[in-house]
Structures are given as C-alpha cells and as structure tokens.
Amino acid sequence: MIRKIYVGGLPPPYGGVSVYLYRLSKTEKDSSFIDTNRVKKIWFLKQFFFQGNHYIFNSSNQIVYIYGLLLKVFTKNKYSLYIHNSRLIEEWRNYNYLAKLSFRNAERVFVVNKEVKIFLANRGIDTSRIIFKPAFLPPPLEDEKKILKTYPLALFNFINSHKPLLIANASKIVFYKGVDVYGLDICIELIGKLKKIYIDIGFIFALPDDSVEKDYQKKVKKIVKELNIEDNIFFLVDQKELWPLFKRTNIMLRPTYIDGYGASIEEAIFFGIPAIASDVCNRPKGTILFKNRDIDDLYTKTIDIIENYEKYINKIK
After folding, report:
1. Closest listed residue to residue 59, CA positions, set 96, 10, 130, 117
2. Domain residues for 180?
3. Which of 177, 253, 292, 300 is the most buried (most CB within 10 A)?
4. Beta-carbon contacts of residue 311 (< 8 Å; ≥ 6 apart)
5. Residues in the chain with pLDDT values less than 50
6. Are both 154 and 261 inside the same structural domain?
C-alpha cells in the first residue's frame, strides 16, 4: 500500500499552509507529516532510500518541485504538488526547465484558485491532473480552551468594550509591487471613516509575525494616532491561532491585494459571521466582495453589513 507523506511547515508559525496541515494531521491518522520548519536538510536525502511513498508537497518553492521530480526519477516514488497561492502565475517566468518538468510529472497538482488551474492548463499541464481544492478544514473544536488561554487579558477587555467588532489577519507584513498585500493600511483607513458613525467600533488585527517591516508598522501606528482611533485598534501579535475570535467578532475583513483563495474567509463564514473581501480571486461561497483597493466600495459594503446585519447572518445560515 502506498503511504502518503505530507511535506510542509507545521505551526508555529501560524499561516494558511501550516494551519491546514495541522488540521489535516488530526484526520489523516494513517499518513505521515514532515515539518519542513524543523527537519534538517539531510532528511531529504534519506528519502532516496525508501520506496512506496506518495509525497504531497505543500510549497511554492521551486526547489521543492525539483526534489519531487528527482524522487520519482530515482526512486519510483510518487509525488503531488499543492499550490496555496496565486503568486505562481507572477513567478512562472523565473522557473527553470526542471521546475516546469516537475509540474508535468506530478500525479496531481492541487490549486486553491481556479485562475491558477487555467494558467497551468495553458502551459501544458494535463487538465485531468489539476485539481481545484480549497485549503479549508474545520478546526478541531477541542483546541478552543487551550487557544483562549494564549490570548492576553487585554484582548478580552477590548472585545467586551467595542461594538461592532471587525477582524483581519496577516501571517506577516508583506509587500507586492509596493502594495501592502494583506491591506492593513486600507483597514486602518476604513476604521477611521467608520468611527465617525460608530464611536465604539473595534478592530482586531492578528499579526503572528511582527518581526519584519518595523518601519511600516511604525508608520501605520502613527496614522492610527492621527486618526484618533488608538482606542479602537487592537494588534494581536505572536503566534496564536485565530479561529476562536471569529466566534466573538461581527465582521471578518480580507482586503488582500493578491490572494489565492482566503481560507480564513471560509472559516469566518463557518462560524457564522459575514466576511468581506477584495475581488482579486475566486472566494468562498457567501463572501461579500468589494473592488480591490477601493476604500469607498469597502466602506459602503461594510456599512451595509452593519446596518442590515440580521439579513447577512440569515444568508450565511
């Protein structure tokens, strides 16, 4: 029997891929999981001594793609690739011949975005091997108490004293073509506008890794102060899972400049709160879309959700 081996980073750090693999490990008891955040490089060489495995690589690193190809050529093991974001499209021109060949020889290429599926098909990948597969799995609810203990007391005080309560997240601050990928800047601008109507509005921004782009973070906090919304913003930093907060907030924001799918949107909807996201890619069913980087459209859509909240909740149900 062929044994499945999932290869990718497990939390911490927390991100879309690592959370997906962690939840998958809870259900696929007969499969193995290799945490690339912690294994030594020698592990990859050891795999050439084993047979009868099917490796599923969860990565956008072209070196990993090539490694899968080498495993198949020299050991007859199988491999599949799982592409969790849309950046592959932009980065394709930098891929060398071996990386492209690895796509053509994979058993399956899983993608979270239909645009990536079309893109790959147009470049010679057999469409029968390209599978659209959103990377959302329901969280293990038994973890909730443990997760809640990781939150600071100040967060619970913030939740209890603000309404409506909005939430957004980013694994870390990332720029693409000079634009804040996760849209923290547009979130701050939105809260500044909304406070003029809802004085007690609250916004939680979860940022597990705040070690990068420190100057930008300082710039954002300066804007927060200028807009007089310091008491309306809570930055949740350090490595913490997010999903219990969806049960305690009102609206989830996903104003990403570029994206693959947005599993956190599906998670919010799973817990019964409306989610509004940029129209940059295919989104989960039930998502309210706004024009990418259009603050006026985001503002209008958010106001409509707040003012007609029961209608949106009933749509989710």
Report:
1. 10
2. 145-316
3. 253
4. none
5. none
6. yes
